[in-house]
Every structure is written in C-alpha cells, then in structure tokens.
Proline dehydrogenase
Amino acid sequence: SPQRAGGRVPGSDCVSPQRAAGAGGRVPGSDCVSPQRAAGAGVGVPGSDCVSPQRAVEAGGRVSGSDCVSPQRAVEAGVGVPGSDCVSPQRAVEAGGRVPGSDCVSPQRAVEAGGRVPGSDCVSPQRAVEAGGRVSGSDCVSPQRAVEAGVGVPGSDCVSPQRAVEMGVRVLVDAEFTYLNPALRLVTLALMGRWNRAEPWVWNTYQCYLQDCLARLGADVALAERWGFCFGVKLVRGAYLEQERRLAREGGYPDPLHPTWEATNHSYQRCLDLLLELVARDGQRCQLIVASHNESSVSHALRRMEELGIARDRGAVCFGQLLGMCDHVSLALGQAGYAVYKSVPYGAVEEVLPYLVRRAQENQSVLQGIRRERDLLRRELWRRLLRRP
C-alpha cells in the first residue's frame, strides 16, 4: 500500500505516485508516476515519457531527454533540455538556454541572445553573423554578414572556389528571379570575401532592369572596399521581364522592374559609369564584363574607357555576347584589341531554346541587331562576290 508505506518502492508497477511524492519518495523508471505530485515534492523523474513538464519546471525539476517537456516552462525556470526535438527555441534563447543539436531552434532568437547553434540547418545566418556567431557547415549562411564577421562557409558542394583559383578559372555567379537573388548575392559576397584577396576570382551578376540595382551595387562596392576584397561584376539588363511582372501581380507586391525600356537603359548606363570609375582607379581589384547586345551601351562603355584612360588590352574591362548574337559587334571589338567573351549555350534543345528566347526578350534592340547583322552579312557577301576592296 503506497499510501501507508510512504517509503521507496522501486520497480513497483502499481505504486501511487501521489502518495509516493507526498512522502518524498523517488520512483525512478515508473511509467505511471504523477508528474504533478512528483514536481510538487521536488521529485526528479528522469526518462519518464509522461512527466508533466509544467509542474516539473515549476518545481525546478530537470527533465533531460524528455520528448514532451514544456519548453516555455523549462526556459522560464532555466531548465536545460538537451536533445529535445520539441524545445521552444524562442523561449530557450530568451532565457539564454543552450539547445545544441535541435533542428527547430529559432536562429533569430538564438543569435539575439548570443546563443551558438552549431550544425543547425535552419539557423539564421544574418543574425548569427550579427552576433559574431560562427555557423560552419550551414547551407544558408548569410555571406554578406559572414564577410563582416569573418565567417567561413566550408563544405559547399555547389562551387569550389579553391579549385577554380588553382586552375586559373574565374567563377561568374549568375542572377535569377528576385526571390532567389538575395541568397545568391549573399553567398557570392561571402565567396568574394574569402577568395578575392589578390584579384577577383568570384564575380557577381547585377540586373539593371531592377529598380534597386544601382543601390545594391553601391552597397556591395562599399562592402568590398570596407573589407578589402576584390570586386568582379558581370553587368546585364535582365532576362525575366514577363515572369517577374506576373509574379508581382500574383503576389500583390510592387513591380520590381523599371517601367520602361528607356529607364532600364538609363539604369545600365549609371551602373556602368560607377564600375568604370572603379576600374580606372584600380583595374587589378575591380574588373567588369559589359554583357550587352545593345550597341549604344557598348559605344558608351568604349567612350568612357577612353575618357578615363582605361587601356583596352589590360583585360580589366571586357565585353560579352551570345554566340550568334551581335557577332558583328563582337568581331569589331576583338579586331580593335578589346577582350570579348562569346557565351555558348550548351544543352538539350528544350532547355537551350527558352534560354535564347529570354535573351532576346531582355532587350528590344536584340531583334533590331539581328536585322542589322543580316544586312551587314548581305553587304559583305556582295562585296566578296564582286571582289571589291
């Protein structure tokens, strides 16, 4: 009779937890212990699956390894709950609780409290870096903040900058939809901070049809100057006009693109001017690809290079077009001594054709350029047939 015994009855399956707890008895391993009374008596119940976390915590009881512990109460009482999958990260962090290995820890709160959350896949890199936390192996670390805090991002499978540097190959990270660009931008900045110490091996892409392109470019330039890494840029107009506008309509947020083609051209020219001035200041630490099929943009770049004294054969500024598009511009640039990249889309037809269509849609002058190129080819054929000088 547990009521009368009032003593310790280990291994008993029918012990009355209410009376046992009232007598201060400890009932380890009991599956039916009353957590309310156990907690009231200050009884610790390790390994119990049905312990009442609220009462246990109120009594200052420590319930390690329990899957159903109340994180709110545990944290309020300063109770550590290692290995718990359902711990409340917000409360844990607010109380300064350390929750190693938890997959659901709140990274924002963890970082705000200075909590270190190694190995967490959902850690907030921005907050982690702001708090000086190092998040090695995290796939979503914020590179911009990582650069500021000197955080390394080892183990990335999607790019091997070290291998690229060893082989003398530059890594140009492309831009995508606006909902992906912030992550791409921050990852690229982190890689720049790590590998672009002597010269720009990792480059980022900036889409000038975005209304905030110039502001973001200026912010990243300031970050590069502040932390002393080299800056490589591929400057494009952008290729997802219809998709971006459709997503904005469906999502109910403002259109992120410039309203007109002329406004995009103006944005491209302003970004180009900013970068060319940086190249003129130090062409070893800032380099640029003018990726454009627009003859006016190319002519503007050539004129500014001449005004700023940027040598055409230094390689600090080069030009890029698709193979088969604006070849007359590419060939003329090459003959004049400028560095030119010709991009070759390679892959299955059903994958390559949509890519080429997007390239044509991004700039109305592309189709005009194709007609102009056709006329130039016709004239050249007649010249050769007639053997004219």
